[in-house]
Write a structure and sequence with these properties.
By secondary structure, this protein is α/β, with parallel strands linked by helices. The protein is built from 14 helices and nine strands. The strands form three sheets. The protein has a five-stranded parallel beta sheet, with helices on both faces. Strands 3-4 form a two-stranded antiparallel ribbon. The radius of gyration is 24 Å and the shape is elongated. It starts with a helix and ends with a helix.
Length: 290
């Protein structure tokens, strides 16, 4: 398929991803110049969704590496299937086979457990590699990641160097819980995604919850936009806005009012302190969203 800016723009819309020109250009350049894209922004703004939509757009597999503190090379790259190797050793020993012959078998690709990075590199076709929440990983892992993203090849001592047949499309996401290294940033194109405007969020609700009344979805989007301006432990994500819209639809709500909002705030907010703060401001936020 030919990758053009129109292809990306139309494809994102067909996949029901409400986007901006900045996002479209970043995704297009990532595809044609084959450079990783680092997407930063608050939790819940749709950073991960970019990778999912890209995989759908390219009709390919999404390979996801979820980062966390303590993530190491073995969990990200590969491990040997030790149980299978032990079974093979036991069988070959019983048959009195030579160790050189045994080791040649147990250190073959058949006994290799591919983790996300190796899976993306060795895939028979171009895949989308999502390295999610890279800011949660340790700095040591970040340095290792730089090597992989530089050459798209890995060395397995028992097998040699495995090079990418098809360079994967790489999307990294970060919630900015820590500052990433300048070296990693230089390797990537950069894109910052913030929460959408109330108007754009209403469009997202229309796409994802089309049965919701137009007036109510606008009210929902404006109310959530107002909530995000309050000082909270965790502001509502787009996913939580959609959950709230679905809940209102299931409850048969036609218009937001103070009692309805207070009864359903737990769908939007996950901390009791945030709920109490919102309850005190519900009337004001509703007037602003009318």
């Amino acid at each position: 398929m030919e990758i053009t800016l129109d292809f990306v723009r139309d494809g994102l819309r067909q996949c029901h991803y409400i986007t901006t020109q900045k996002v479209e250009i970043a995704v297009y350049l990532t595809l044609v110049l084959e450079k990783p894209l680092l997407i930063e922004g608050p939790a819940g703004v749709g950073k991960t969704e970019v990778a999912k939509v890209l995989a759908e757009l390219l009709q390919t597999e999404l390979v996801r590496l979820q980062c966390y503190e303590g993530l190491d090379e073995a969990r990200a790259l590969y491990e040997w299937n030790y149980q299978k190797q032990l079974l093979r050793i036991h069988t070959d020993t019983a048959q009195e086979r030579d160790w050189d012959e045994v080791s040649a078998h147990i250190f073959s690709r058949e006994y290799l457990l591919e983790r996300p990075l190796l899976r993306a590199i060795s895939a028979p076709r171009r895949v989308v590699l999502l390295i999610d929440e890279v800011d949660k990983a340790d700095e040591e892992f970040e340095a290792f990641l730089l090597e992989v993203l530089s050459d798209f090849q890995v060395s397995v001592p028992e097998l040699g160097t495995i090079r990418a047949v098809h360079r994967p499309v790489v999307i990294l996401t970060s919630n900015r819980t820590r500052e990433l290294s300048e070296a990693l940033k230089r390797r990537c194109f950069h894109l910052y995604i913030d929460f959408p405007s109330a108007e754009d969020e209403a469009k997202i609700v229309a796409l994802k919850v089309p049965q919701l009344d137009e007036k109510l979805r606008r009210q929902v989007a404006r109310f959530v936009a107002g909530l995000r301006k309050l000082e909270m432990k965790k502001v509502p994500s787009i996913a939580e806005t959609l959950d709230w819209a679905r809940a209102l639809l299931a409850l048969g709500v036609k218009e937001l009012d103070v009692p309805t909002v207070r009864r359903t705030l737990n769908i939007l907010l996950k901390h009791e302190d945030d709920i109490r703060k919102a309850e005190g401001r519900t009337a004001d936020l509703l007037r602003a969203s009318a």
